[in-house]
């Protein structure tokens, strides 16, 4: 049984997924911002899912939140991405901020129904933090890959000061000097709005900076990149599961047996059946690794500031393993599904290629080769991945 069944969020989640499914293929073709579908998330109450009950949220563990991300990705991986990154921004506040900041921003998220966006990309160092008034700063520059910034209420943004120190801040998306460009037009993840945000001397107050304890300041704070990586794993598994279901429906509904086959139906063709077996095994393995990783992650999160470097390292290994398996499984199923569905399934009307385009774009987030290298270093030398914004 899925951990999302028989829970207070089950009915609103199912309702959202049913409506998304009706337009997912068409919206993939059009791209742009999914205003209506984002609005459904706002109304559903799911944006407060991971927020602790003491601040008015549902207090769901991260394993549950990401299981919902996986289910969403089966239907629409762009919106699953936006939902997941909303909760990642909330986690960032909890990991990098002070108690008063956590209480304020999480509480207001529940009261105001805020949808959070991302302008944090740590690899994009073109945004500078210039000295401002009263120990504040002026953020100036451009940020790329800002998933969910359009139609968001609040942003997490980063910049580098004169000493090269990374600063992370919270700011309303509509603050003077912020321009969110509509320039995301990639071949996959078409509605993640992962385009550019321009900062023109945007005023950041001192109490809007998440610098106490700050980024990656403790083993507990170093859980942030592991949560981000775990999110990707769940999206990849979800895309693969969605592709498998679509392949099954197409095969049973319209695929014809090959002329050399002795089977009357494709569902009896041994090669077709074997392919489905391969797909299922790959996805089962990846899903079990993601569940195992999230069990470790939940336990580490509960440890809080008592979490040790060694314990964080063990979680990093589990998350990396799930990431590699999920990426490989998602790519395999989304690509090889056409071996069972046949030529008829390549019609643009079905848009079955969207599963491959989505997982192919998303798996380029950070190179899988480096995750495999980290795992090899662990397996051979006993060295855990070093904390960074990607491990």
CATH homologous superfamily label of the largest domain: Butyryl-CoA Dehydrogenase, subunit A, domain 3
Q: Stretches where pLDDT falls below 50 for ≥5 residues? A: none
Assembly of the depicted chains:
single chain
The N- to C-terminal Cα distance equals: 30 Å
Number of domains: 3
Q: Helix amount, in percent? A: 40-55%
- How would you sum up the major sheet? 4 strands, antiparallel
Please work out how many helical segments DSSP would assign. Answer: 11
Rounded mean pLDDT score: 95
- Percentage of residues in strands: 5-15%
Give a written overview of the molecule.
With 391 residues, the protein is of the alpha+beta class. It has three domains: 106 residues, Acyl-CoA dehydrogenase/oxidase, N-terminal domain (Butyryl-Coa Dehydrogenase, subunit A, domain 1), CATH 1.10.540; 91 residues, Butyryl-CoA Dehydrogenase, subunit A, domain 2; 159 residues, Butyryl-CoA Dehydrogenase, subunit A, domain 3, CATH 1.20.140.10. It has eleven helices and seven strands. The strands form two sheets. Strands 2-3-7-6 form a four-stranded antiparallel beta sheet, with no helix packed on it. A three-stranded mixed beta sheet has the order 1-4-5, covered by helices on one side. A hairpin with a 5-residue loop joins strand 2 and strand 3. Helix 6 runs parallel beside helix 8.
SSE inventory with pairings:
Blueprint: H1 10-30, H2 35-44, H3 62-75, H4 77-96, H5 99-112, E1 116-119, E2 128-131, E3 137-143, E4 154-160, E5 166-172, E6 178-180, E7 197-204, H6 223-253, H7 270-303, H8 309-336, H9 338-341, H10 353-362, H11 368-381
Parallel strand pairs: 1-4
Antiparallel strand pairs: 2-3, 3-7, 4-5, 6-7
């Amino acid at each position: 049984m899925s951990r999302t069944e028989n829970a207070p969020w089950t009915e609103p989640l199912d309702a959202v997924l049913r409506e998304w499914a009706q337009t997912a293929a068409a919206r993939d073709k059009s791209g742009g911002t999914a205003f209506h579908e984002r609005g459904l998330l706002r109304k559903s109450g799911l944006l407060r899912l991971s927020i602790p009950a003491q601040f008015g949220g549902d207090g769901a563990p991260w394993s549950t939140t990401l299981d919902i991300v996986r289910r969403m990705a089966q239907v629409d991986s762009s919106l699953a991405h936006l939902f997941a990154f909303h909760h990642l921004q909330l986690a960032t506040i909890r990991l990098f901020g002070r108690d008063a900041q956590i209480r304020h921003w999480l509480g207001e998220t529940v009261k105001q129904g805020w949808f959070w966006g991302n302008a944090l990309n740590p690899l994009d160092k073109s945004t500078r933090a210039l000295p401002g008034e009263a120990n504040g700063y002026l953020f100036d520059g451009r940020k790329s890959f800002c998933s969910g910034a359009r139609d968001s209420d609040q942003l997490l943004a980063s910049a580098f000061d004169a000493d090269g120190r990374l600063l992370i801040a919270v700011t309303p998306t509509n603050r003077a000097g912020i321009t969110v460009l509509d320039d995301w037009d990639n071949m996959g993840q078409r509605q993640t709005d992962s385009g550019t945000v321009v900062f023109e001397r945007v005023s950041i107050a001192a109490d809007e900076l998440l610098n106490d304890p700050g980024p990656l300041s403790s083993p507990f704070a170093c859980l942030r990149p592991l949560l981000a990586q775990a999110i990707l794993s769940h999206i990849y598994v979800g895309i693969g599961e969605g592709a498998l279901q679509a392949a099954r429906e197409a095969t049973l509904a319209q695929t014809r047996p090959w002329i050399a086959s002795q089977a009357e139906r494709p569902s009896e063709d041994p090669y077709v059946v074997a392919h489905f077996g391969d797909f299922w095994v790959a996805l089962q393995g990846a899903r079990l690794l993601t569940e195992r990783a999230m069990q470790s992650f939940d336990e580490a999160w509960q440890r809080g500031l008592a979490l040790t470097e060694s314990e964080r390292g063990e979680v990093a290994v589990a998350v990396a393993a799930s990431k590699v398996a999920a990426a490989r499984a998602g790519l395999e199923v989304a690509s090889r599904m056409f071996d069972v569905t046949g030529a008829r399934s390549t019609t643009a009307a079905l848009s079955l290629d969207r599963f491959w385009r989505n997982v192919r774009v998303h798996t380029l987030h950070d190179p899988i080769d480096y995750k495999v290298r980290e795992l090899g270093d662990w397996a051979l030398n006993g060295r855990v991945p070093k904390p960074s914004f990607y491990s």
